[in-house]
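Take just one protein record:
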Amino acid sequence: MRFTIPIEPKPQKRDRITARGGFVRSYKDTKQAKYETQIACMLEQHRPEKPLEGALELRVICYLPIPKSKTKKFKAAAIAGEERPTGKPDCDNMLKNIEDIMEGIFYRNDSQIVTETVHKFYSGNPRWEITLNTAD
């Protein structure tokens, strides 16, 4: 299955930690929770009847916005695919975010993913492109 999520790709944020009365509590950042809910709603239309079983392959292409501070020459090269995002966010954080959001919707657990690939590109149209297949 292959689908596009038309929202700017973002990495997974770390949980927030607080300590009160000698007890430590971990919770999700509110922006992260809102972002995950937004993507989960968009993923619903692509959801299989029941979560996939067995070994899976996941391919994710993250199209990030071109920084506004860059030159016209850089922007043209980025659109042509000659310039790629080499800074933050890291590919592994991007992948972990989408894996966790898809868990329970497309598969039982992200441990079912035996092959994963993530690419970062620039685009004037930021989005996630996701391909999920059973592994051969």
Q: What stands out?
A: The chain has a mean pLDDT of 89. The longest strand covers residues 113-123. The chain has three helices and six strands.
